[in-house]
Write a sequence for this structure.
């Protein structure tokens, strides 16, 4: 029925089957949209946030999707600036994932602020010394970059490409994509960093505060580095999931191995820096303010040393080691374990840098504050996931996202 | 955001921050303008050739 | 914005005598009435109810009969930030300049119509002095007539906090101007609601820069930075006086006074054995 829109030579499931899948995910999406409107119309009393937890699940979700969406800028940087040509086979998908992540982040931010209609104040009345201002500017600008990077892929749709103007526009945009990618890398460096800076500059919070370079605390650089390191893990994970759902191989192994190898080395270098940062903070920064490391990990029912070990060792050192070793990297199962652990690791890091900061008591007579999100918060956090699934489904069905798809599926086409 | 906003100060912080921002926006706008104008010209050339 | 004027301008602050405080809560009540602070029908959850002035209960954790209790009123600490340069933890992070440091008064402002409710300032404040309006403010019927016309009520979705009764400062400034001496606000003309309401006289408020003011005489703020921590300025030279979390370098303008060592110790965090070394320096002048 919609075969005229499907890329030439590509096999897709029948439209009714596709529609049923979309309908199921849309139900989840609508649940999230309902919660979103509740928050907008009734206010943030719909959440379980409180004056101890001004930042909670949503800010974590924001930081997490931006971190895992870092695969877009980093892959773009490698492809267009460092000219690693193999990555052209995965760049479209990395961009789509990035587009989903960043649009989700902007949406969550729009729900998260107490006066959404005043959201533009952050631009108009900008305080240039606030890390959050830098986040807002660079995030919005980078979202524009992702949109620009996504447009040519949309215009390559079989029908759209028949329109001469669209055909030429897509071609021209490909021609100057390196400039857009470079701008995107510049913007990403700053907003990923600023998100780290958000925590690092809070000198009233000994769990968060870090020394740094000029106006940038070390968390600034760690966040940028970790997004570049773990972002590709998420790109690979979503690619793997898409391959599993469609039952097709979509990207050649050499491309996957290359991205996994780069990601592995980035993770290893990042985790070394992270260990040094943690050790310095634990042994110098925090004690200078009167805090032992144990203060941050004991006397409460949730945050223990397990969190630190899981983040740094299990979800940092382990995936890094797997991905830099040729034999383990090229073993599909171990690679899958590594990219799952990596994705969890960066999300856990963002959780720690948002929620644990709020949980730790600072005044000596204060107490730990734990928090469980309300269903409205969970629904609005699931909303972007549903939206992402739908967008990927449409993009995969109607756009030539994977250049190697036909070649890989020529010999033995998947029966439907 | 703009020099006419009352909290604007001509200091290093504002110049570096907004310098970077407007520079990035400038590149994106110029890049897109170039692509669109060129696409319009290409399309016009196409239709010219077909006659 | 004129940072250089800080020393010649006012620097309002307070000292709270914890040995006098009985924990009666008059300061909290007067603050709420004075500043049109909204409340909920059920105020049991202290994590989402608004109390610009909050009284904490501290104990020495000793079993009977050695148990001692102290009540600690905690308004906004009006931090001067690291080095007392006006970069308070909250002011420096606000993305929309909705909270600002008054270099002429030392008071941290909150502009309700500018705040868009991102709550970054709340995360940055270690004192939990900032509160978010999770609900629309609602007063029981008839009570809206008792609202102060001098303080704007806040809308849902913005952050608010103690302003050191800034409207009283404005009134005192107007009065001084009318009397032809605009640069000299009398001590008795500007006093916060909590100060005037305290039946025990535990709160003393005034200009920390003015040696004639009682608060200055009690606190004796050290004009030099603390040699042990370059971020700390205005440390008290009275050994019985401390500030909350002074080591973080937030430089609050609210000082606390107590004869009891265990109370002073709870003002900050110390590693094991550290207090024994530090307490001898505590509150003493760094420069003679």
């Amino acid at each position: 029925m919609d075969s005229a829109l499907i890329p030439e030579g590509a096999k897709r499931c029948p439209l009714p089957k596709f529609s049923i899948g979309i309908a199921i995910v849309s139900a989840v999406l609508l649940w999230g949209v309902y919660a979103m409107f509740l928050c907008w119309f009734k206010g943030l009393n719909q959440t379980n946030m409180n004056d101890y937890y001004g930042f909670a699940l949503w800010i974590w979700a924001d930081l997490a999707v931006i971190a895992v969406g870092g695969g877009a800028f980093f892959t773009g940087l490698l492809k267009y600036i460092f000219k690693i040509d193999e990555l052209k086979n995965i760049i479209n998908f990395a961009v789509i994932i990035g587009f989903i992540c960043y649009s989700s982040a902007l949406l969550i931010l729009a729900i998260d602020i107490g006066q959404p209609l005043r959201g533009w104040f952050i631009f108009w009345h900008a305080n240039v010394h606030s890390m959050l201002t830098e986040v807002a500017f660079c995030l919005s600008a980078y979202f524009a970059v992702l949109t620009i990077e996504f447009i040519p892929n949309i215009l390559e749709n079989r029908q759209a490409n028949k329109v001469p103007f669209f055909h030429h526009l897509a071609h021209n945009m490909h021609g100057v994509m390196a400039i857009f990618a470079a701008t995107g890398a510049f913007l990403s460096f700053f907003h990923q960093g600023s998100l780290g800076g958000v925590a690092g500059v809070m000198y009233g919070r000994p769990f968060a505060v870090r020394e740094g370079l000029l106006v940038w605390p070390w968390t600034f650089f760690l966040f940028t580095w970790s997004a570049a390191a773990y972002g590709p893990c998420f790109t690979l994970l979503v690619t793997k999931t898409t391959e599993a759902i469609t039952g097709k191989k979509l990207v050649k192994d050499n491309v996957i191995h290359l991205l996994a190898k780069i990601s592995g080395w980035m993770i290893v270098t990042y985790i070394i820096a992270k260990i040094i940062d943690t050790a310095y903070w634990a042994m110098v920064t925090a004690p200078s303010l009167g805090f032992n490391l144990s203060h941050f990990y004991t006397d409460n029912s949730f945050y223990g040393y397990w969190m630190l070990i899981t983040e740094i060792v299990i979800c940092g050192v382990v995936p890094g080691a797997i991905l830099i070793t040729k034999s383990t990297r090229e073993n599909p199962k171990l690679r899958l374990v590594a990219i799952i652990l990596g994705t969890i690791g960066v999300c856990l890091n963002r959780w720690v840098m948002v929620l644990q900061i709020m949980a730790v008591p600072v005044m000596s007579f204060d107490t730990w504050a734990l928090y469980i999100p309300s269903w409205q918060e969970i629904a609005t956090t699931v909303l972007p996931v549903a939206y992402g699934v739908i967008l990927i489904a449409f993009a995969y069905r109607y756009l030539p996202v994977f250049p190697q798809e036909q070649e890989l599926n020529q010999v033995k086409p998947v029966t439907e | 955001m703009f020099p006419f906003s009352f909290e604007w100060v001509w200091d290093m912080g504002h110049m570096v921050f907004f310098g970077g921002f407007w520079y990035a926006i400038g590149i994106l706008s110029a890049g897109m303008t170039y692509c669109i104008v060129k696409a319009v010209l290409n399309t016009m050339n196409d239709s010219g050739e077909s006659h | 914005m004129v940072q250089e004027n800080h020393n010649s301008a006012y620097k309002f602050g307070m000292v709270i005598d914890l040995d006098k405080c009985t924990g009666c809560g008059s300061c909290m009540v007067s603050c709420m009435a004075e500043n049109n602070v909204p409340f909920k029908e059920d105020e049991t959850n202290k994590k989402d109810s608004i109390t610009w002035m909050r009284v904490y209960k501290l104990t020495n954790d000793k079993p009977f009969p050695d148990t001692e209790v102290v009540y600690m009123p905690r308004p906004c600490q009006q931090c001067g930030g690291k080095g007392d340069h006006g970069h308070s933890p909250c002011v420096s992070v606000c993305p929309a300049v909705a909270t600002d440091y008054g270099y002429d008064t030392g008071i941290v402002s909150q502009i309700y119509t500018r705040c868009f409710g991102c709550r970054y300032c709340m995360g940055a404040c270690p004192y939990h002095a900032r509160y978010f309006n999770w609900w629309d403010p609602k007063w029981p019927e008839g009570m809206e007539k008792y609202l102060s016309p001098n303080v704007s009520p806040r809308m849902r979705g913005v952050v608010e906090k103690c302003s050191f009764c800034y409207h009283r400062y404005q009134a005192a400034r107007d009065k001084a101007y009318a009397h032809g001496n605009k640069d000299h606000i009398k001590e008795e003309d500007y006093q916060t609601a909590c100060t005037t309401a305290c039946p025990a006289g535990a709160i003393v408020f005034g200009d920390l820069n003015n040696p004639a003011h009682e608060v200055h005489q009690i606190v004796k703020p050290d004009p030099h930075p603390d040699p042990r921590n370059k971020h700390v300025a205005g440390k008290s030279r009275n050994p019985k006086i401390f500030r909350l979390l002074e080591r973080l370098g937030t430089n609050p303008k609210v000082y606390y006074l107590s004869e009891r060592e265990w109370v002073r110790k709870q003002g900050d965090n110390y590693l094991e054995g550290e207090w024994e070394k530090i307490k001898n320096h505590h509150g003493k002048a760094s420069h003679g």
